[in-house]
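Now for one record.
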Amino acid sequence: MTCILLILLVPLSSSFLCSKGCSSCIADYNCNTTCSDTFDDDHTCNSCKWSSPSALNPEAYLMNSEGQCLKSNSILSKNRWMPDDQYKEEIFPGIPIPIILDSNTPLDYSFCRYPMKYRVGKWFKLNMTPIKNNYIDDVAMSMDITKSKRDAKSGNCMAHTSSPVSSRNVIIKGNFFHYDYVNDGTQEIVFTFFISTDTVKTINATLTVTFSVFQLKDNTTIISQKETDEMAKNLSIVRKVKYSFDTIGIYYYPTCMPTFLSKIVIFTITFDANYSLLLSTKRPNKLNYFLSNKIIFTNNTLTAVCVSMWSGSKVSTLELEQEGILVKVKGAKNEQTFSLFTQDYYSDVLFTYQVICPNHCHAESGQGECVTSKAKCVCKSGYGGDDCHLLCYYHDNWQIKDHDDLCYFGSNGCDQYCKCESGYTFQNNLCVSNYCHDDNKLDIEECKRSEYGCVQNCYCDTANGFFFNNTSFKCQSINCGNYKIDQVRWGTNSLKDEECDSGVNCNDQCFCIEGYITNPEETTSCKLKSIGGGAIAGIVIGGSVFVVISITIIITVILLVLNYKQIDIELFKEQQPTYHFYINGSVNCEPNKESKFEVDPEQLDFGNSTSATAIMDTRYENIHVKNRSRNKYMMVIFHTPNTPKYVFHFDPQVIIMRPRAISCVTCYMTLYCTTKLKGMKIPYTVWFSKSRGILNEIALLLKDKNFETWNNSDQRNMDKLSKSILIKYHHNLILATDAASSTHIDMDELSISEKPIAEGAMGRVYMGSYRSVAVAVKQFRWEKLDEDEVAELKKNVVAECEMMAKLRNPFIASYIGSVTYIPQVSMVIQFFILGSLGEYLRQEKEDYVKMPYKLKVRMLFDTSRGMQFLHENRIMHLDLKPDNLLVNSLDCNSACTIKITDFGTSRFKKKSITNSEDKGLGTPIYAAPETFKDEYTFAGDVYSFAVTAWELYYQVEPYAQLKSIFDIKRHVEEGKRLSFDQNIPTLYKNMIMECWRADPKDRPSFDQVCNSIVKIDEDVNNNLEEGNQNDRIVEIVNKRTDRIQKQINSISE
């Protein structure tokens, strides 16, 4: 038995990806138990447990090189953001300091930003007071630098650098003093270094600080004349360089922004040519700056002078406009120096450059101008091409004299200089492809050259008024449709009169359809072509022959059909009748020679001996049955299990065989859920009698009967018939395959509470347990629907479940599975002890808590990131509100505080089967104004997010002063919104107002909302509220945990 259990467990536990913090998963990175103690218990178990430095007894958790999170109590003791001097080793210029970071190194946190607060690190200080040279040259194992004093409220992250992947060194370079700063030795300046790593691993390094004259060209990218000349030959070339400012760049006060310390990358551009170079950082959509420097040496003193500066911020509110710089650089005789700089030391910037506007668009001649935003020349009338040269052919006229060997500019295959492109042949001022020559047009071409209105290059003759009709896929004259008979010319010498125009039986090309001719009485229409006597005779004879042949074919087909047995696979997915498993007087015996029967094989794997069987897949296996008796008939009945979880269909189910006969029974298996299958037994009974009729009577007696319905009358009849039964046996077929892991859940493995924990218009939510994991089970309310409506909605739910099974995101409630094989459809997701956000926002709620502002911002950020993921996958939520936001953690420093649920399920309610549009979705309080007209867009979710953000901040019911849903609807449609007081932070308020704009097109995307919340979070310390709710939060978490645990225990019992 132990061996069988192990075989059963292997497919269930090894089919999904699991993190180190989880012992087993029920879906990819979806733990079916709580995460290990050292991991953040967010059901993914991918992040180490977060710990707050402000805790009374702080603990730290770091990941080692094997991916395991280790707990450490070895934390550096300090009462400010910076430790005492006794914990800081002093370093001196030019003297290497050995550094060892290992498991014995105390943990601490930096003044710079990291995902996990605690790190393995050491502190160092450098006294800059006696040093006259301000430029730090190399720090060969350095992470973070600050010159803030210890008594400051918090440390300013002056510099931060991480080691690049390709190097073992971490280098920080820069001038950390204002350009006019003079060190006279009177002011004490101390630089503090924090060298750290986020992995528990032994690291041996050396820290060296040196000083030198500031070299502006350090860390320089060079764009040369040779490179730009090559790019000028093909203007489609765009070169890309990715700069990770986390690992590269030097620190400097830019000459054009002398009060802002920034991280910069230097460029030198050297080219002198009649084209321009376009530099861009628009693609990453991040704010950065670009400046042009001029270096001047005076009396052996280096001075950088600001020439120009470009800001990467938006200049308009257009949604398509991105942040980032776009700069056009003209060639010059001398080397030009530029700097790309940013104050986001962690950002990745994709820098691109390309050659544009050759010959400067002949702007000096007034032929055009170079437009940076379009990255090309914009030409005046009569001029064109890459450089706005005089066009050889313009508006159906040649603009140059010698044009015999030139093609029409603008025609297909003709380049900007009126020459045919490669793969085309010049012919009568047109460029003809080789395919067109062979009367076999390319996909991009419109017609065959032999067709009406088609010229030599396989395109419609636009010069003579033809255009391509996208409906008929043929060339059509612009005169066709004017109710006149026109003479139409195309090509060089083709001429033809229209046969009709817009009349009866007239096609799109103004010709009569086949079998019709022009009607002389109404020339714009066509009439049926008259038939002569000879034609009539031919039709009669031909028709007679056709009838004879048709009758012969029909008779042949009928005979074939009558002798052909068509297999309908759907038939084998249906449950078969139940036959009473009557084994009184029967012997349990394996098939052998002595028992006079054979059933082979008895172990059924359906072709999946080494793999599990997929759900919804129908597979079959042939079973060979043999009657070894020489003088008795044998009947075999297969007693199929009657359950909606799977179907075992035997063809035939009852077989009666003459003596010494061999037959084949096919067993079809269809699985509808992941269930325990391997080792399951399907019984069969074997009956021997000399009378075939007796066996038939027994089969009829047992049919549609079971142990409960078998009565005394049936028993008396069986006793009478059994007198003719010489011997009977029973045995089992054993399944040797298992059901594959899937999201189709076996209802028998799902324990559900008796009372719902939540109830709404769409259904009820119950607490449950699935394989020892707490889950939430949503059952839809379809009691009052007819069969067609239920079938339609069930089909939608199944499709939605299949889609949800593919979605994996930290901010989306993990979908575990669904039960769809029974009429009561259920969806199963992970259960959250802390419930929904709506349970904490109102004072009348049992678990009301005044949430810290920082936690509110974090919850909004996690919600926006989850919605961003849904929208990227083209999924609308349709009912975004606090009740559909599940609380994963009430700690603002947790890896995840909110998980979104119930997206799209508001569609699963009664609707007209003939109407494919969803009506009245969502909750009116949070619904966008356009949804009142049944218009649903992604922007509608953004509006709902705004109302949710307002409710989260104020923690009161929206529109509480309005008496009915109709009042709310009227209020919103009139352009009115919820009101604000003076206390709400400006950035928070502005974000809400942007998100609930009346016009959906004016609302931001969730990408933009995320960016806005990042700025709100950066400003969060300026809006902290008085009072500490930590004790109340801990009380709520403990109380809910105890309550839910009791409910889970009661369900398990």
About this structure: The two ends are 25 Å apart (CA to CA). The longest strand covers residues 301-311. Residues 533-562 form the longest helix (30 residues). Confidence is low (pLDDT under 50) at residues 1-14, 134-142, 315-321, 905-921.
